[in-house]
């Protein structure tokens, strides 16, 4: 679990750097409902002076290419100030039916700076062909959501269980959904968030995490803020048990 939390932080940082390079995505996350044949994501070129050669793929939590999804087109030219629609298609590779599955949509942009061919049918340019400027890449969460889960998303987020431990708090996710926290407050203490030691936490379905924090009293009020399907933030409250 800690390994996957680290990847979530790393991918968020990489995506922020890439957005500054010119290639941008029209979403901060992608939800793929099981009943859909495909889902789409827009890719935009915010650069005013150069096209990009863009390569797109889906990676699993170990950052290896996922067999569960196909991205079309996998390689294309993105014109200056242009935009393109990526289609993500679920393959026949099975995924769990009782919980969400997390992958990463990875979009890499390479900009020509000295006459390098940017034709989509060509291979990715190399330094031997001319000077190129390579963006770090955009990586956003791709969450596959099976039909018929035991509870709705909102009910799942509200179901977080917070209990005291000798060293702080234990957060347990009893739902089939991924929880992406913006902050968690217990009593008057922020135990996770922009000014706390642990800046971000993602709890997988049916997973848990221990948070080191002092001074949380029994039955303290808890408030947690999570990112919803649209990239906005929803707030929930409860009590430490």
Describe what you observe in this structure.
It is a single chain. The protein is mainly β. The protein folds into two domains: 2-145, Immunoglobulins (Immunoglobulin-like), CATH 2.60.40.10; 153-239, Immunoglobulins (Immunoglobulin-like). The chain has two helices and 18 strands. Strands 2, 4, 6, 8, 9 and 10 form a six-stranded mixed sheet that branches. Strands 13, 14, 15, 17 and 18 form a five-stranded antiparallel sheet that branches. The radius of gyration is 20 Å and the shape is elongated. The model is unreliable at 1-7, 12-20 and 121-133 (pLDDT under 50).
Helicity level: 10-25%
What is the CATH topology assignment of the largest domain?
Answer: Immunoglobulin-like
Query: Would you tell me the structural class of the helices and strands?
Result: mainly beta
Q: How many domains, in number, for the residues? A: 2
CATH superfamily of the largest domain: Immunoglobulins
Question: Taking Cα atoms only, what radius of gyration do you get, to the nearest Å?
Answer: 20 Å
Order of helices and strands: HEEEEEEEEEEHEEEEEEEE
* Inertia-based shape: elongated
CATH class of the largest domain: Mainly Beta
Count of DSSP H/I helices: 2
Architecture per CATH nomenclature, i.e. the level-2 architecture of the largest domain: Sandwich
Low-confidence stretches: 1-7, 12-20, 121-133
Count every beta strand, where a strand is a DSSP E run of 2 or more residues. Answer: 18
Strand content: 35-45%
Report the span from N to C terminus. 23 Å
């Amino acid at each position: 679990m800690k390994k996957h939390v680290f990847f979530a932080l790393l991918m968020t940082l990489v995506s922020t750097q890439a957005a500054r390079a010119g290639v941008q995505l029209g979403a901060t996350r992608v939800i793929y409902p099981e009943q859909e044949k495909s889902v789409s994501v827009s890719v935009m070129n915010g650069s005013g002076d150069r096209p990009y050669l863009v390569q797109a793929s889906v990676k699993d939590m170990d950052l290896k290419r996922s067999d569960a999804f196909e991205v079309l087109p996998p390689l294309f030219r993105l014109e200056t100030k242009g935009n393109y629609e990526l289609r993500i298609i679920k393959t026949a590779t099975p995924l769990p039916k009782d919980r969400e599955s997390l992958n990463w949509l990875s979009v890499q942009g390479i900009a020509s700076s000295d006459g390098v061919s940017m034709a989509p049918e060509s291979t990715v340019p190399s330094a031997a062909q001319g000077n190129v400027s390579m963006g770090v890449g955009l990586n956003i969460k791709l969450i596959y959501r099976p039909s018929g889960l035991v509870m709705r998303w909102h009910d799942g987020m509200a179901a977080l269980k917070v209990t005291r431990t000798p060293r702080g708090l234990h957060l347990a996710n009893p739902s089939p959904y991924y929880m992406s926290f913006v902050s968690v407050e217990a009593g008057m203490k922020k135990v996770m968030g922009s000014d706390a030691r642990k800046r971000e936490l993602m709890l997988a379905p049916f997973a848990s995490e221990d948070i080191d924090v002092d001074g949380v009293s029994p039955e303290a009020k808890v408030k947690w803020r999570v990112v919803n399907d649209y990239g906005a933030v929803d707030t929930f409250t409860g009590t430490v048990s």
